[in-house]
Design goal:
Rossmann fold, five-stranded mixed beta barrel, two-stranded antiparallel ribbon, 7 helices
Length: 265
């Protein structure tokens, strides 16, 4: 049965592309029967049972296209339509660090927007912007029990290695990066950058600027290395890794369910 539409949402989970959204829906046992329409947007709504008998109300969303602008517009609509207490951006990204392997998961301590700058006769002077993750959610990630990393997708390399979880800075921009030189130039602008994507800044900025106090976190599965050799082979596995870790994170009850808090005497 679809979740009732009058109960408060605990977590909104945003994705950028179909492979990410399908991975999240699979991880949270959502099907086409869970589709809900609001003001031109389509969402997937359901419950995540918690070990103590409570449950989180969750809603999943995907925009029409990828990129920071689409992510910001979607985040604004999700906050308007559902008033969640927290929002996750869950999807895939490129690694910028040799220790962050294909299939691993990156949790963003900070989203680093590298596109802003000033063009002068002497070159472009960068003016990066940084938005920190919500401290409560991030602190809970640090204290999580071990994640087994069992996924409903096979590793493209045929190995049995479980994904490793890394915490660091996620760089966010407007372009698909398929150049090792460009990747390294971006990564060298901040020593703690370990992943590169296109939606984290728009998502974080929209949440940060909203009137509502919405906690937020960016979770990414690594699908390529941002070089000339990048391809789509790891997309499904990386999306499944990020979605599975997101469920593991929520299953550990990082915040109090809103329905329980509302019913407390």
């Amino acid at each position: 049965m679809p979740a009732p539409t009058d109960t408060p949402i605990d977590f909104a989970i945003l994705t950028a592309i179909e492979v990410e959204r399908k991975a999240v829906c699979t991880a949270f046992s959502l099907t086409e029967k869970d589709r809900v329409k609001k003001d031109g947007r389509v969402y997937w709504r359901g419950k995540l049972p918690l070990p103590d008998g409570d449950a989180y109300e969750v809603v999943v969303a995907q925009p029409a296209d990828m990129g920071n602008i689409e992510a910001a517009l979607l985040a604004s609509d999700v906050i308007k339509h559902w008033q969640p207490s927290a929002a996750l951006l869950v999807g895939i990204a490129a690694s910028t660090d040799k220790d962050v392997k294909l299939g691993d998961v990156v949790v963003g301590r900070t989203v680093y927007y590298y596109e802003h700058g000033k063009v002068t006769p002497d070159g472009t002077k960068p003016q990066p912007e940084m938005i920190n993750a919500d401290s409560v959610l991030l602190n809970h990630v640090v204290a999580l029990p071990d994640w087994e990393g069992k996924l409903p997708a096979a590793r493209p390399d045929g190995r049995a290695d479980a994904p490793q979880v890394h915490r660091g800075v996620i760089a966010s921009g407007e372009k698909v990066i398929a150049s090792a030189a460009t990747r390294d130039e971006i990564a060298n602008s901040h020593r703690k950058i370990i992943a590169l994507e296109m939606e984290g800044y728009g998502f974080s900025r929209a949440v940060w600027q909203s009137f509502e106090r919405v906690r937020h976190l960016d979770i990414r599965g690594i699908c390529d290395d941002g070089s000339e050799t990048k391809d789509d082979r790891w997309h499904k596995y990386a999306a499944a890794a990020a979605a599975s870790f997101a469920r593991h994170f929520l299953s550990d009850r990082p915040v109090e369910p809103r329905s329980k808090a509302a019913n407390r005497p």
